[in-house]
Amino acid sequence: MSQNVYDQQEFFESYIKLDRQVRGLAGAPEWPQLKAMLPNLDALNVLDLGCGFGWFARFARENGAASVRAIDLSERMLNKARSLTNDEKIEYERADLEELRLAENYYDVVFSSLTFHYIANLPTLIKEIGKSLRPSGHLVCSIEHPIYTAPSRPSFVVDEKTGRQFWPLDGYQDEGLRSTNWFVERVKKQHRTVGTYIKMFLNNNLQLADFTEWYPDEKELELHPSWESELERPTFLLIGAIKR
Amino acid sequence: MSQNVYDQQEFFESYIKLDRQVRGLAGAPEWPQLKAMLPNLDALNVLDLGCGFGWFARFARENGAASVRAIDLSERMLNKARSLTNDEKIEYERADLEELRLAENYYDVVFSSLTFHYIANLPTLIKEIGKSLRPSGHLVCSIEHPIYTAPSRPSFVVDEKTGRQFWPLDGYQDEGLRSTNWFVERVKKQHRTVGTYIKMFLNNNLQLADFTEWYPDEKELELHPSWESELERPTFLLIGAIKR
Questions:
Q1: Which of A172, A209, A230 has its CB closest to that of B232?
Q2: Do B194 and A172 touch (CB under 8 A)?
Q3: Which residues contact B194 (CB under 8 A, 6 or more apart)?
Q4: Are A216 and A224 in contact (CB under 8 A)?
Q5: What keywords does the record list, in alphabetical order (chains A, B) (predicted)?
Q6: Where are the alpha helices (DSSP H) in B38-166?
Q7: What is the CATH number of the domain that holds A44?
Q8: Model pLDDT, residue B182
Q9: Who has the most CB within 10 Å: A32, B68, B165, B204?
Q10: pLDDT of residue A194 exceeding 80
Q11: For residues B141 and B153, what is the distance between their CA atoms, to the nearest angstrom?
């Protein structure tokens, strides 16, 4: 059973104030690059894993998707998502992605935003995704970058001599549970290496098509000067893959 | 023109004492994983980029390769390589990989060990490799891992409180020249992100087949306790790709 921090009152109240919740996809800086990895959605069957407030599900329907099945573990998230649309072709569903089983050869697109790094039993989920995609179907996902999830103390250190900040990387090869504080204490994440993610995809007939380690461009840095630290180490990894 | 540090007396005298020069492939800890990425070499035409003393060229011939073209910039390395074999099917050649042009649709295997991170104009070289490989041909290569090449001060820092060591990652997105000291001062390397390497391959019809961030296993750690730091951050990235 996955941890369900999203249904904790304290977490939820902070989480919904994030720019990417208030403004949706437009508030997620990595969205333009992730969007560019998607095929034309017209008439496609879409699965959204970790749908949150349903921003992507609604985007997919606005862009012609025939249907969207949108899954989340959090009842609060799903209630909010349901309140934002009455589109009958979006099916919201509560399920634990650790245990999800999918029909074979059914979806054209599987999308997942910043969810896979919470899933302990990811090999099984990726296997289900591989099976459930039609030939030439797309998996498009974002995860927290392994460089971001690895460290035992994941915050920048300022070098006293130079004033330069660096990211104290350790434990990169030590895959598994990381416990961090994010609005509340002990949010559980799963660290995996880049190689482990890539091989999980390749082993399930998901051929790599895109791979982007997000960073802000000059315009974004002008608007958000604090994002400059993103140039020192990546936070988000975006991957596109195609079913063989 | 590439930097040719290998032909500097001081560098060369230290370099030839490395385990991987004295013992050849058996002295390179990442060799078993790199070898596993190779196809059966029987009757294949092989190109080795940055061949050094020719350890791989001789291995390829011992394993049935029809021919090996082995290229290096260093005259000293090539002279030593030539002295170690009289196999007429190994053709040693001095060339600058920055400027190499290759015949189309000719090689079955292109191999390159720890060389690409010295090449400034790598996009052109990868384009040439993509062109020169036959359909279903293999590119198998190792590079210094981007996590290893990125930092402005690439050496471990010991945390005074915990005694734990970490790798001071910075400048990950700042691609380009890095100048390091390795036997001699100012050895020039090129830092690129993982994403840049992967996209360079994908853009040249080289489909990812393998991706390994090398680390020592328990047996190797017993023999070489100092390699434990490899678990904190990877040094070597091994990539296998197949021409579409």
A1: A172
A2: no
A3: A194, A211, A213, B146, B237
A4: yes
A5: Methyltransferase, Transferase
A6: 55-62, 75-83, 122-132, 146-149
A7: 3.40.50.150
A8: 78
A9: B68
A10: yes
A11: 26
Please say whether the dihedral angle defined by the alpha carbons of residues B50, B54, B59 and B64, taken in this order, is positive or negative: positive
Instruction: List, in sequence order, every residue forming a beta bridge with A110; answer none if it has no partner.
Output: A47, A139
In this prediction, residue B1 carries a pLDDT of 66
pLDDT tens digit sequence for B210-241? 999 999 999 999 999 999 999 999 999 999 99
Q: Could you tell me which residue, A235 or A185, shows the higher pLDDT?
A: A235
Q: What does pLDDT average to over chain A?
A: 95
Q: How many domains does chain A have?
A: 1
- Looking at the DSSP assignment, which residues form a beta bridge with residue B68? B46, B90
Contact between B216 and B29 under an 8 Å Cβ cutoff? The reply is yes
Residue ranges making up the domain that contains B36: 5-243
Query: pLDDT at position A155, please?
Result: 93
Mean pLDDT of A32-57: 97
Across the interface, do B230 and A173 touch by the CB < 8 Å criterion? Answer: yes
Radius of gyration of chain B (CA): 18
- Residue A167: list chain B partners with CB under 8 A: 168-170
Which residues of chain B are within 8 Å of residue A198 when distances are taken between CB atoms?
A: 208, 211
Q: Are A42 and A138 in contact (CB under 8 A)?
A: no
In the three-class reduction of DSSP (H, G, I as helix; E, B as strand; rest coil), residue A104 is classed as: coil
Residues with Cβ within 8 Å of A131's Cβ and at least 6 positions away in sequence, in order, are A102, A104, A105, A204
Q: What is the biggest distance separating any 2 CA atoms in chain B, rounded to whole angstroms?
A: 60
**Cross-chain residue pair B194–A173, CB shorter than 8 Å:** no
Listed range (A227-236, B13-22, B187-196) with the worst mean pLDDT: B13-22
